[in-house]
Structures are given as structure tokens and as C-alpha cells.
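Worked Example 4.2. Consider the chain below.
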Amino acid sequence: MLPGPFPADILPKAFVASLLVWGGANYLLIGPKIGERMVRADYLPACEINLRQLVKQQGKDRLAGLNPPSADPARELAARQLERFSNSPAMEGLRRMSRGMGDLFGLDGMAGDLGVLYRKQAAEARQAYQDAKRRIEAETQTRLGEAGDVCGCIADKAISVTRSDWALFTGTLTAYRPASIAGFGQKMAEVHRAGACAGKAGGS
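Applying the procedure from the previous section yields the following C-alpha cells:
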């Protein structure tokens, strides 16, 4: 009869098996869950503050880059000169000489048409400027409102790419803290710069 297995032959296998189970549990469940809790407590508030400041500054820069509506000096001068000439004593004399023949030289009509055209173009330029300004302001407000979602996405992506490090961190009961965990804010910044969550706010 063969002797049964000696306990010393079993213990190493059981120990290795337990390590594999523990490691797998930390990689699949424990590490990411602890990472999520820590990141949401320690990093998300600062992320949202920084992102909102960035969005506000980008909005200000876009508004500053708009070309405000401005009059065409040459066209405005021409319209005023023609209007003054149309109302000058000399033109009044020419109108009297025309003896009721109307706008004999076409200057009255020209002055009126030029004034209408100038005012229309100025109004269109003002409207286009206001439309662009309102669009930028609306987009900025939308992105500000989505800052929390964007930072949540950044945190999730950063946790995903550092899953192994989180497993080591929790698997050693926090005795070992990998560099990516110690500097997790930098890892989140890298994810943000990579544009992984840009679609969450319509682009950033």
C-alpha cells in the first residue's frame, strides 16, 4: 500500500492556488473598486475645478477671437458725403431748376440706396456677431455642465490602464504603492491630453 500524500507536498500547491485566486480577485474586482472609491474622493473634485477653469478660459479666448462688427470707414464716408451733397444749397438750386422733373441727376436716389445698403450690411454684421457670441456662450455652458461626466470618464479610463498597479496596491494591502497610483493625478492628465473622453463634452 502506497503512503498517502505528505502535507508538505500539498501546502505549496494550495499556497500558489490561493495566491492566484487572491491576485485574480484584486485584478478583476478589488483593485478597480478600491481605485474608483479613492479616485472619486481624492481626485475628481480637483479635476472638475480645473476642467471648469479650462473651459471658461477657452470660452473667453473664443469670444476674444471674434471680430466685432465695425463700419467700413470708406463706405460710411462716401454715404455721408453724398447725403450732405444731396442736401446742400447747390443741389436745392438744381432741384428748383429742374422745375418738377424729379430727381434729375439721380443723386437723391443714389444717396438713399447707399444709405439703405450700408445700414443693412451693418445690421447683418451685428446680427452675425451676436449669433456667434451666443453660440460660444451656449457651448461653454454645456461643457461646464458636463465637467463631472468628463472627469468621471477620465478617472475610469485612468483606472483601466493602471488596473495591474491597483491590483498590486490592494493585493499587498497597500504596503506597496506603484508610482502610477502615487501620482494618479498625472495619469488622469495624460488620459485627458490623449482626448479619450473628448466626446463626453462635445470636444475639449
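Residues 165 and 178 are 6 Å apart (CA to CA). The chain is about 75% helix and 0% strand. Compare this with Example 4.1 before moving on.
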